[in-house]
Amino acid sequence: MADCGKLSAIVLVGGGSSRMGRHKATLPLGGTTLIERLVAELRRAFADIVVVAAPESVAEAALPALDATVIRDEVAFAGPAPALLLGLRSVRHEAAFACACDLPMLNADLAAWLGSILEERNDAVIPVVDGCLQVLHAVYRKRCAGVLERMLGRGGRSLRALAPLLDVRSVGEQELRQVDPELRSFFNLNTREDYAAALRLTESRAK
Fold first, then answer.
1. What is the CA angle 191-45-84, rounded to 5?
2. What fold characterizes domain 4-206?
3. Where are the domains of the chain?
4. 18 or 79, greater pLDDT
5. Is the pLDDT of residue 20 over 70?
6. 184 closest CA partner among 122, 111, 88, 135
7. What is the rounded CA–CA span in Å between residue 104 and residue 203?
8. Beta bridge partners of residue 128, listed in sequence order
9. What percent of the chain has pLDDT over 70?
10. Measured between alpha carbons, how far apart are the two ends of the chain, in Å?
């Protein structure tokens, strides 16, 4: 199994946030921004954190100061696959937990646990929730970069198309609930209604 001390974390922040109406990463949440909250949570388990953000030329690319290494996409809004490739090439360790920036209830303990069950033969550990592969709440080895690059070279853009090309250890809800009983780590923000729900959850936890 992988040593959690030899795992990095990657946060992808490149999306356009069209349904939200503003950049998700800088949404206020619990007295801070969503991206700061996410990085602080990951910092509990990961010493090496890389944030992959949109190019600085993009109007909404400004981020607060983060306790992480921030690198920039070469092309704006190219999708998560090129951003993950850039992240995998930039992390220090041989495997990394990768997630999107829109997970307000991310559980660093769950992220670290996913890394701990990565076997030597596995290229990735990917949870399955509601029957769907959670490709942006998963652990990938750096060697996945080569497969990802070849996939992109053939015109493939979907991260879900990457999974069949890898040796994946999938993790079902029963296992996941042993660490995160309500699976809140997978709650993501797509709409203003999701954001309102996140604010309520944050307020209830603070009481």
1. 55
2. Spore Coat Polysaccharide Biosynthesis Protein SpsA; Chain A (3.90.550)
3. 4-206
4. 79
5. no
6. 111
7. 12
8. 133
9. 90
10. 38
Token digits of residue 137: 């709440």
Kindly state the tokens that stand for 161: 């198309």
Inter-helix orientation angle 144-153/80-90, to 10°: 150
pLDDT over 90 (residue 37): yes
Cβ atoms of 63 and 26 closer than 8 Å: yes
Amino acid occupying residue 59:
A
CA atoms within a 13 Å half-sphere pointing along the CA-CB vector of 168: 18
44 vs 111: CA distance, rounded Å: 10
- For residues 190-200, average pLDDT: 92
DSSP labels, 44-103? TT-SEEEEEE--TTSGGG-----SSEEEE-SSTT--HHHHHHHHHHH-SSSEEEEEES--
- The helices-and-strands tally (H runs, E runs) of the chain is 6, 10
What mean pLDDT value characterizes the chain?
Answer: 90
The pLDDT, as a whole number, for residue 9 is 98
Token pair in block for residue 41: 């949570």
